[in-house]
Amino acid sequence: MNISTKTLKSNRTNALYWKCQLLGWCTVSVYWAYTVYTRDDYGVFYTFCNYVLDVAIGIFLTHMYRTYALKANWSQLPIKKLLVRVIPSILLLAFLYVLLNNLKWYGYWTLIAEEDKNIWVSLLYWDPILLTGLRLMSIWILAYHLYHYYQKEVVTAREYAQLSLVAKQAQLDNLSAQLNPHFLFNSLNSIKSLIVENPNVARRGIDLLSDLLRSSLYEKDKDLISVKNELALVNDYIELEKLRFEERLEIDITLDKTLAHFKIPTLSIQLLIENAIKHGIDKVIEGGLITLKIDKNGDQVYIQVQNPGKLNDTKSANGLGLMNLKKRLELQYNKEASFTLEEIANNIVQATILVPYRADENI
């Protein structure tokens, strides 16, 4: 979302907030205006002044609460922690509501009606104003947080739907890649050449190919997968590709063993390895070494793949698979993850995935 879109959305939210504030407090204050006009004989002008002050008091107190709640980010708190803060806030706002209304009442009867009223007696008059304040503040705060809870749920549902859609698209892309005629032809051709020469290796190749196709089908319902299981798929893929590239393809995998059960987006490492072979090894006559490193740095886990080649193929940098990977990372980790693809020294292309380390992601 760009800056102008965020600004427009913020302006709409503020406009809606002020409309609700004015409409709500103007409606509520009509009752008190009617009461002072008919019971206390305020007259039209002073009834109107009292009405405006009632609206102003309600808006002032609730807006003060909203400002603090936004600053403290209370809308992101779980229900239990929110209640611990909301209940004292209601009591405090009701207390301030009583004081401000009593000051308003005292000011009218002493300054305008010119009657002798004791300020302490006026300030200590709580019934029924306290109950009114508790009721009004409870309703307002409940409505405010219910609205934000609803908005958060809508955003979460929308992001989850987008994530599921992008993940399914990535799985379809992966399946499509596995069923790619060139990939199947090359794999089957390699297996065919080994049937007579080395039947055991040929049978192994068939097993690997069937495992890869099976994983593309049966892993499709998982958004996340453990690093250990993902590497099992990667090793099968590498072993199958080595039937074709033979000594031209080498791989070196370094894994922090504490991350073996850490969850990552399904087929993300395999996508990077496929990209490294397709746009790197396959285009270099002598082949080369692919290095895969999975490690933790502070509160981030990084997955880094390096391969020989140059980053001059726009398809390799802007392919549908990598674009979907970026989108999945953005949705899965709420923009706390990132993906970069860059050419570093000595004709080496480096792809890096950074995701936040979360203990509850372990399985």
TrEMBL record:
Coiled coil: none annotated. Keywords: Kinase, Membrane, Transferase, Transmembrane, Transmembrane helix. Residues 170-249 form the Signal transduction histidine kinase internal region domain. It comes from the Bacteria. Its EC number is 2.7.13.3. One of its GO terms (molecular function) is protein histidine kinase activity. The chain crosses the membrane at residues 16-37, 43-61, 82-100, 120-143. Gene3D superfamilies: Histidine kinase-like ATPase, C-terminal domain. The keyword DNA-binding does not apply. The keyword Amino-acid biosynthesis does not apply. This is Sensor histidine kinase. It comes from Maribacter chungangensis.
